[in-house]
Amino acid sequence: MTLFLVQIIDQQKEETNTPIAPILGVFVTVLIVSICIYYVLRYLETVYVKYYKQPFYTHLYFKIKKLPSKEKALLEAHDIYQILSDRKQRYFEHRVANFLEKTTFVERDGLAITSYIRMQIAMLAVQMTFGMRNYMLEHLQTIILYPDSFYSVLNRTENYGEFNPHSKALVMSWNQFEKSRSDKHNGIHLGIHELTHVIHYNAIRNSDINSELFYDTFLELEAYLSSEKIRTMIVKSQVLRPYAFTNKFEFIAVLVEVFMETPNRLKEHFPEIYAYVMRMLNFRYFDK
Questions:
Q1: What is the per-residue pLDDT for 34?
Q2: Residues 6+ apart with CB under 8 A from 109
Q3: Within 10 Å of residue 168's Cβ, how many Cβ atoms?
Q4: 261: closest CA among 172, 196, 164?
Q5: Which of 147, 146, 140, 131 is nearest to 103 (CA)?
Q6: Facing residues of 105 across strands?
Q7: Model confidence over 130-176: pLDDT tens digits?
Q8: What parts of the sequence cross the membrane (predicted)?
Q9: CA–CA separation, 12 vs 6, rounded Å?
Q10: I need a surface site. Which of 134, 135, 140, 170 has the fewest CB within 10 A?
Q11: What are residue 145's phi and psi, to 5 degrees?
């Protein structure tokens, strides 16, 4: 009996001394340290954003994706792409390629979605989020395109565009998108308007650093606009079309349209508001 107990104890010692226990201990230690480092850096970046109004960094990629020659030719004609440095152009191309790869395009009412159509929407989406580290918006997975206006089951109205957060889908009229894209000086752009709704919703629902920056700056902008004098000046200037005053969501969507389409006009009339939008999107490329 004694010999049997000794054998059991020896067996337990051998099991305890197996390599699994030390490896597991190292793994747990590394995991705990990594989590601690993450939250420390996250806190430090939050403090950094508070003072410098931008994240630690925006672009970090392990492998840069490239577009086929046909799509690259369309990219090289893009206004924002042309004003970027060579390095930022590679980042822009990578983001467009990634957006095309991960976003589902769905055609409706006989519209044939071509490479040109996909590229125009992808380039705009990347332009809108180029100042953001998390540029692949969590609440946008599908883009549904109609040739013209469509009946919205949600709103029971005939629409040119809408964002459905529950389906993570953006629905737009391609003809209206292309029409608004062709006129770059009227401050009206269907794609910019609807994508702003996506970014705004994403900022409300998420807690990444750019979402915090967008949402917190938006609250500061709301406080700034609480002045009756400022509101009167905005209305009289006609920089924003009347639809902007429907509600705060439409206001920011129209404001970003003007910022992207006619930045100099917005900056000339309302430099403070221009600065707020620039910070919200971390979009600093018009001033370079």
A1: 74
A2: 146, 147, 148, 150
A3: 15
A4: 196
A5: 140
A6: 143
A7: 999 999 999 999 999 999 999 888 778 899 999 999 999 999 999 99
A8: 20-41
A9: 10
A10: 134
A11: -120, 130
Under a CB-based contact definition with an 8 Å cutoff, are residues 80 and 95 in contact?
no
**In Å, how far from its chain's centre is CA 200?**
9
Return phi, psi of residue 150, to 5°.
Answer: -140, 160
Q: What are 215's two structure tokens? A: 């949402």
pTM: 0.86
Name residues whose C-beta falls within 8 Å of residue 16's C-beta, 6 or more positions apart in sequence. none
The matching CATH number, chosen from 1.10.1370.30, 1.10.472.150, 3.40.50.2000, 3.90.70.10, for 69-281 is 1.10.472.150
Q: Kindly list the domain boundaries of the chain, sorted by start residue.
A: 25-54, 69-281
Name the nearest CA neighbour of 143 among 98, 91, 102, 178: 102
Angle (nearest 5°) at CA 265 between 262 and 270: 120
Distance CA 282, CA 102 (A): 23
Residues paired with residue 173 on neighbouring β-strands, in sequence order? 146
Residue whose entry in the numeric block shows the structure tokens 């750019």 = 210
